[in-house]
Amino acid sequence: MLFVVGVPRKTTHKKSKKDSLDKTEKKEAITPKVRQGEQLDKHRTNIREIIQCSNATPIRCRGGIGYACCFCKDQFPDPGDLKKHTIEQHDDESKSTFMKGKDMYGYLVKVDITALQCKLCSKEIETLEQIMDHLKDIHNRNISTDIPNHILPFKFDTEYLRCFMCHNVFNRFKALQEHMHTHYRNYLCKVCDAGFVNRHLLLCHNEGHKIGVFACEQCTEVFDTLRKKKLHQRKIHDGLNKPHKCGYCDERFKENCHKIEHLAKVHGVVGPLIKCKACDRTFATQQTWLLHTKKYHLMQRQHKCTRCEMDFFSKRELTDHMVKHTGTREYRCEMCFKSYGRLKTLKEHIRRLHPEERRFKCVDCCQSFDKHLALKCHISAKHGDNVLNATNI
């Protein structure tokens, strides 16, 4: 079902009739407010009817631990557990208060419609729009279909996060949520034609198109757009340069992939894996899956050797290859001063011939290092622990 955003129609008038002009201006000033109020009431009624008359589960957010309940503070790593919790622990009376006092200007509802079913007749239904039509036409429920839909539906019926409308795969729920705006284009950006489910998100997006002088308050960097400034602040300054926080122990990470590794190794929480559609490999992050796809299945080779016909996926691979042509040996062993053309070869040399020189040992996995700084970096990256997990051997 296609929802069309209504636009108030301006009343025509003649400039010579001042009284008529005044009445028209007053009418146009009041009409949008009345319509917004009517839309808010209809939206509230729609979502309450859907939640009370079906097994659709609202999702408050996906926080540090998992999917958060809209009716209490509980969070669940698996959305199926949230659905079970909501159905068993919260009755229709508590659900009837959902969304009261909320302003539709910046509000949207996220609902899990996995195995969607009407509670009134037990009919299985595929989509959010179909359950709305079903409740209205079959059960005569108070459902309004003449307003923009501010409800984003999600299905968790596969082992990985997937948009059930176009089957795109995502590693994070936030990324999937942002993607859903492409299917619910209630408000459109006039600059880039991006679509958004509500007006608030469109206005926030429009701020990124403004050009001017935007100075970072924490350093001397200056940017020509607000979006570039915010990206800089999030990457460089926010959270002590570590914006990704673990919901279990509050440890922070610079990259989301490091947080995912930490959750799996320290807390035993394994996120949804992305399965490659061209082979049997699986990946923890969308980034690693994309790199794998580009390198091994799309066969992208943008880095070409200037001395032979070979080409490579990464600049590092090309650099290692060039050693064959140049004969340079810039990596030198500090123990025996033997030089190598590749860092990988030097590390293998040290591992085989100088194990006694690697005095700093990790007590968790027994891997040893020749420098204490290298051991600290290893512990931070692999074990998420402090530097006390080290012994001098």
Task: Please explain how this structure is put together.
The structure is a single chain. The chain has 393 residues and is an alpha+beta fold. A hairpin with a 6-residue loop joins β10 and β11 (222-225). The strands form nine sheets. It has a five-stranded mixed β-sheet. It starts with 17 loop residues before the first helix and ends with a strand. Residues 1-34 and 385-393 have low confidence and may be disordered. It has twelve helices and 22 strands. The chain has four domains: 23-192, no CATH class; 270-300; 301-350, 2-Layer Sandwich (Double Stranded RNA Binding Domain); 358-393, Double Stranded RNA Binding Domain. Keywords: Metal-binding, Repeat, Zinc, Zinc-finger. InterPro entries: Znf_C2H2_sf, Znf_C2H2_type. Residues 1-27 are annotated as: Disordered. Residues 67-95, 214-242, 274-302, 303-330, 331-359 form the C2H2-type domain. Residues 18-27 have a biased composition (Basic and acidic residues).
What is the strand and helix layout of this fold?
Blueprint lengths: L17 H36 L3 E6 L4 E3 L5 E2 L2 H11 L2 H4 L13 E4 L15 H10 L13 E4 L6 E2 L6 E2 L2 H7 L7 E2 L6 E2 L2 H9 L3 E5 L6 E4 H12 L6 E2 L6 E2 L2 H11 L7 E2 L6 E2 L2 H12 L5 E2 L6 E2 L2 H12 L4 E2 L6 E2 L2 H11 L6 E3 L5 E2 L2 H11 L7 E3 L1
Parallel strand pairs: 4-5
Antiparallel strand pairs: 1-2, 1-4, 2-3, 6-7, 8-9, 10-11, 12-13, 14-15, 16-17, 18-19, 20-21, 20-22
Protein name: Jg11305 protein
GO molecular function: zinc ion binding
Pfam families: zf-C2H2
